[in-house]
């Protein structure tokens, strides 16, 4: 299932085997990079992982 996240709290509820993650467009560049790093370590697929 695709899910939109904007913070680390949103990640805690998700399962990498079931969810594909979209990072909210309201998240800034520095925060986006941090979230991508955390999501990658946990094994999530990120649909919009374009780094600025």
Low-confidence stretches: none
Strand tally is 3
Radius of gyration from CA coordinates: 10 Å
Multimeric organization: single chain
Provide the number of structural domains.
Answer: 1
The CA-CA distance between the termini, in Å, is 25 Å
Please, how many helices?
Answer: 2
Give the helix/strand class. Answer: alpha/beta
Note the overall shape: globular
Strand content: 15-25%
- The topology string of helices and strands comes to EHEHE
What share of residues is helical?
25-40%
Strand order of the largest sheet: 1-2-3
Describe the main β-sheet briefly. 3 strands, parallel
Average pLDDT figure: 93
Keywords:
three-stranded parallel sheet; 3 strands; single chain; 52 residues; alpha/beta
Kindly describe this structure:
The protein is α/β, with parallel strands linked by helices. The protein has one domain (2-46). 37% of the residues lie in helices and 19% in strands. The protein is built from two helices and three strands, in the order βαβαβ. A three-stranded parallel β-sheet has the order 1-2-3. The protein is globular. It starts with a strand and ends in a 6-residue tail after the last strand.
């Amino acid at each position: 299932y695709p899910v939109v996240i904007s913070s680390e709290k949103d990640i805690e509820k998700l399962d990498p085997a079931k969810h594909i993650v979209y990072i909210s467009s309201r998240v800034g560049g520095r925060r986006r990079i941090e979230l991508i790093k955390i999501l990658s370590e946990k094994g999530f697929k990120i649909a919009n992982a374009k780094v600025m």
